[in-house]
């Protein structure tokens, strides 16, 4: 199978390296930035991925595309690949509604799995897996965060995926469900402190991570929250409410500038994971429901660390390897549903869930499961 990976950032490069070592695939990595391309031992294409014609011309030459471009250009790439008739697995985390192109994907006979990272992605798969085993759902709670192993003042944070997508998490309104009603709140709201084994106390706050679950899973109460070290929210709120995350140009000494551009220029070097630094990924998924007369709660916990041997960040591992396991599902014919398929759809198949989790275990990424019955 010929696979094209669009985007050679940390996650895109990790996915390319993982699939390159699998003899079933011939992998090509594409990006406008030549620096990461030079590090890849396989086939590369230097290209401007913001141009739809470029995407169309490239996609038609491959059996499957892995979309790992930043979120702000993700949907355009996603749609263009579908129009080309090529299957796609996506981790771009774009804000647009993916189901807008469902009819197009079905007409083209394209298998399009979106949000195939760790969260959204693996979290959705686990929710779909638990929901299939229950007669009805009472609540779904998802907590997830990528963090530096060691806390470093002032932000105690490292951006282990696109920093612009991180800021998007802090500015995009968060949608969740409460008492059966769709609720929209600002990101960074409803803070709570939670304790996690091997990590300690973390701060959880609203972000827009439920995504397709709001449409595909019938549950009266659902929420997704991002995890950071305590105190991070206050710093982000200060920047956001002061206008530093705004993309609206302002006049400064006769020149128009975007505050976000200045913020990015200052913050991103501070948020970069430096040589020798390690990151961790923490995730907890709670699915509460009924089976017959029994009250059942499924608890899924994930803790992953930077891979010292391969020098691969934990966020790249958990995000990228979830996506590459979905690629393997498609390549082996275990999942071949035309149209837009969120990961919770894959979670409805016991065989597919076991396949993905086993593949992750083989890479040292383990999801611990507990079932509480009352």
Secondary structure topology:
Layout: E1 2-6, H1 10-20, E2 26-31, H2 34-39, E3 43-46, H3 52-59, E4 64-67, H4 71-84, E5 87-90, H5 102-108, E6 111-113, H6 122-133, E7 136-148, H7 163-171, E8 174-178, E9 181-185, E10 192-196, E11 200-206, H8 213-216, E12 222-228, H9 232-241, E13 250-252, E14 255-257, H10 259-271, E15 279-291, E16 294-305, H11 314-331, E17 339-341, H12 343-346, H13 350-362, E18 367-373
Parallel strand pairs: 1-2, 1-4, 2-3, 4-5, 5-6, 6-17, 7-12
Antiparallel strand pairs: 7-15, 8-9, 10-11, 11-12, 13-14, 15-16, 16-18
Q: How does this model look, in words?
A:
- This protein is an alpha/beta fold and about 375 residues long.
- It has helices at about 10-20, 35-40, 50-60, 70-85, 100-110, 120-135, 165-170, 215, 230-240, 260-270, 315-330, 345, 350-360; strands at about 1-5, 25-30, 45, 65, 85-90, 110-115, 135-150, 175-180, 180-185, 190-195, 200-205, 220-230, 250, 255, 280-290, 295-305, 340, 365-374.
- It has two domains: about 1-115 and about 315-365, Rossmann fold; about 120-315, 2-Layer Sandwich (Dihydrodipicolinate Reductase, domain 2), CATH 3.30.360.10.
- A seven-stranded parallel sheet has the order 3-2-1-4-5-6-17, sandwiched between helices. The chain has a seven-stranded mixed sheet with strand order 10-11-12-7-15-16-18, with helices on one face.
- The radius of gyration is 20 Å and the shape is globular.
């Amino acid at each position: 199978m010929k696979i094209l990976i669009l985007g050679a950032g940390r996650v895109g490069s990790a996915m390319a390296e993982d699939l390159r070592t699998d003899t079933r695939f011939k992998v090509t990595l594409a990006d406008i930035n030549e620096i990461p391309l030079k590090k890849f031992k396989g086939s590369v294409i230097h290209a401007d991925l913001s141009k739809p014609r470029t995407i169309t011309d490239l996609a038609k030459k491959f059996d499957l595309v892995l979309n790992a471009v930043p979120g702000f250009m993700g949907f355009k790439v996603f749609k263009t690949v579908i129009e080309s008739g090529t299957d796609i697995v996506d981790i771009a985390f774009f804000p647009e509604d993916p189901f807008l192109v469902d009819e197009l994907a079905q007409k083209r006979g394209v298998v399009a799995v979106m949000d195939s990272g760790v969260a959204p992605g693996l979290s959705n798969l686990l929710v779909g897996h638990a929901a299939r085993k229950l007669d009805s759902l009472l609540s779904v709670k998802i907590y997830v965060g990528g963090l530096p192993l060691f806390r470093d003042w002032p932000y105690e944070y490292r951006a282990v995926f696109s920093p612009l997508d991180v800021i998007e998490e802090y500015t995009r309104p968060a949608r969740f469900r409460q008492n059966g009603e769709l609720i929209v709140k600002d990101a960074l709201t409803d803070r709570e402190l939670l304790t996690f084994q091997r990590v300690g106390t973390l701060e959880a706050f609203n972000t827009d991570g439920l995504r397709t679950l709001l449409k595909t899973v019938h549950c009266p109460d659902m929420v997704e929250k991002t995890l950071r070290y305590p105190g991070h929210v206050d710093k982000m709120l200060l920047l956001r409410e002061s206008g530093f995350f705004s993309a609206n140009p302002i006049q400064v000494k006769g020149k128009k500038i975007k505050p976000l551009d200045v913020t990015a220029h200052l913050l991103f070097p501070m948020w970069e994971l430096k040589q020798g630094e390690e990151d961790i990924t923490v995730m907890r998924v709670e699915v509460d429901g009924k089976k017959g007369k029994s009250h059942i709660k499924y608890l899924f916990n994930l803790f992953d660390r930077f891979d010292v041997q391969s020098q691969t960040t934990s966020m790249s591992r958990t995000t990228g390897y979830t996506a590459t396991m979905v690629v393997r599902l498609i390549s082996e014919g275990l999942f071949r549903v035309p149209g837009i398929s969120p990961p919770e759809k894959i979670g409805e198949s016991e065989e597919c869930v076991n396949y993905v989790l086993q593949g992750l275990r083989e890479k040292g990424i383990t999801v611990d499961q507990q079932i509480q019955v009352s």
